[in-house]
Specification:
The chain has five helices and eleven strands. By secondary structure, the chain is of the alpha+beta class. The chain binds 2-oxoglutaric acid (AKG). It comes from Cohnella nanjingensis.
Length: about 260
């Protein structure tokens, strides 16, 4: 699915856009599954607006914005279990992470038309720090995305700077790191943007009349231990490729409720 020069590009830049990972039928199945999760949430007490709070936008603008964000989507619909371990995903992941690849968590990020929330620039590292920094996201595009509907943007090479100080652990100071400092990564439905958890990334408001639906899978080498006992999810640790050589040494500690 990718060539040696793509792996080199990822190592240098901390991200890689891979085209056509999912077929139109697979995208349609995931769109139906996303819509199902949104519908079921709306009928439950679990519906919420996951838009990030903070001072990166004026308060009157921020309060109009909406993000339908839900974690662990592969526990909501089997379409996402298939996507997480899809052979095309596995083919890329083994080149970027190594022979052993484990799912850390999944989530969906739906930015509704005209009011879809922004993500200020940040690294994912503070949310789930690991020793060897093998953690990386594969953000699956379910809609064509561009700057108008809030596509992902990255700062190429920023993963080489290590962990930077975040405002309250959540995002980088927007005065020092405005979104305009990042490179837009427009993509088509079915494309996947892979980026390391140290790569600075974010996205703008969805100002268009179109949806912007992404499903993001976070993967790591199972031998890369977390440095803090945070972001532990139900069912964390599904093996996507290869084997787990350290299964007996550490497993996520979670409680069933
Ligand atoms: O999907 C996006 O626009 C950004 C998502 C993101 O930055 C995150 O979940 O960490």
């Amino acid at each position: 699915m990718i060539k040696a020069e793509d792996v080199e590009f990822y190592k240098e830049n901390g991200y890689l856009l891979v085209r056509g990972v999912f077929s139109p039928d697979e995208v349609a199945e995931m769109r139906r599954a996303v819509d199902g999760i949104v519908d079921r949430a709306a009928r439950s007490k679990y519906d919420h607006n996951a838009a990030w709070q903070g001072d990166y936008l004026p308060p009157e603008e921020l309060k109009k914005l909406v993000l339908k964000g839900f974690h662990d989507v592969h526990y909501h619909d089997a379409a996402f279990t298939r996507a997480a371990v899809h052979p095309n995903m596995a083919a890329v992941l083994t080149k970027l992470i190594g022979p052993n690849v484990q799912l850390h968590h999944s989530k969906m990020l739906v930015k509704p038309p005209e009011k879809g929330a922004a993500f200020p620039l940040h690294q994912d590292t503070p949310y789930f720090p690991h020793d060897n920094h093998t953690m990386m996201a594969g953000s699956v595009h379910l809609d064509d995305s561009d700057m108008e509907n809030g596509c992902l943007c990255v700062i190429p090479g920023s993963h080489k700077q290590g962990l930077l100080p975040h405002v309250g652990k959540y995002y980088l100071d927007h005065r020092q790191y405005p979104l305009s400092a990042a490179t837009p990564c427009p993509a088509r439905a079915g494309d996947v943007l892979f980026f390391n958890y140290l790569t600075i990334h974010g996205s703008d408001v969805n100002k268009s009349t179109r949806n912007r639906r992404n499903v993001l899978f976070q993967y790591r080498d199972p031998s890369d231990p977390p440095t803090e006992d945070v972001h532990v999810n139900w069912g964390q640790g599904l093996m996507v490729c290869g084997e787990n050589p350290v299964y007996r040494e550490f497993k996520p500690e979670y409680q069933l409720r």
